[in-house]
Amino acid sequence: MIKAISYRSGQIWKYYMITAENLSNSDKRIFSQGIPPHGIALNKDFKSVDNMCSDYNYQDLINLVKDAIFL
């Protein structure tokens, strides 16, 4: 939903999947290859999430924040 609002408003918003545990192979596949509903409706290849991070450390989170702030 967040990515659909971003697209419709003409803004660039990033959305991350962050988990404390390791992502399963199914999770990785869904979030890296799955097409969000607005992508299906518009027949465009949109990503569900911009990045996935699991079993993270402090530096991983710093890098995510930098990526989110500095487009």
Portion in strands = 5-15%
Structural class: mainly alpha
How far apart, in Å, are the first and last alpha carbons? Answer: 20 Å
Strand line-up in the sheet with most strands:
1-2
In the predicted model, the low-confidence regions spanning at least 5 consecutive residues are none
Summarize the amount of helix as a percent range: 40-55%
The radius of gyration over CA amounts to 13 Å
Give the averaged pLDDT, no decimals.
79
Molecular shape:
flat
Biggest β-sheet, characterized? 2 strands, parallel
Total beta strands: 2
Please report the number of helical segments.
Answer: 4
The helix-strand sequence is HEHHEH
Provide structural commentary:
With 71 residues, the protein is mainly alpha-helical. It has 4 helices and 2 strands. Strands 1-2 form a two-stranded parallel sheet. It is flat. It starts with a helix and ends with a helix.
What can be said about this structure in brief?
The chain has 71 residues and is mostly helical.
For the structure shown, list the relevant keywords:
mainly alpha, 4 helices, 71 residues
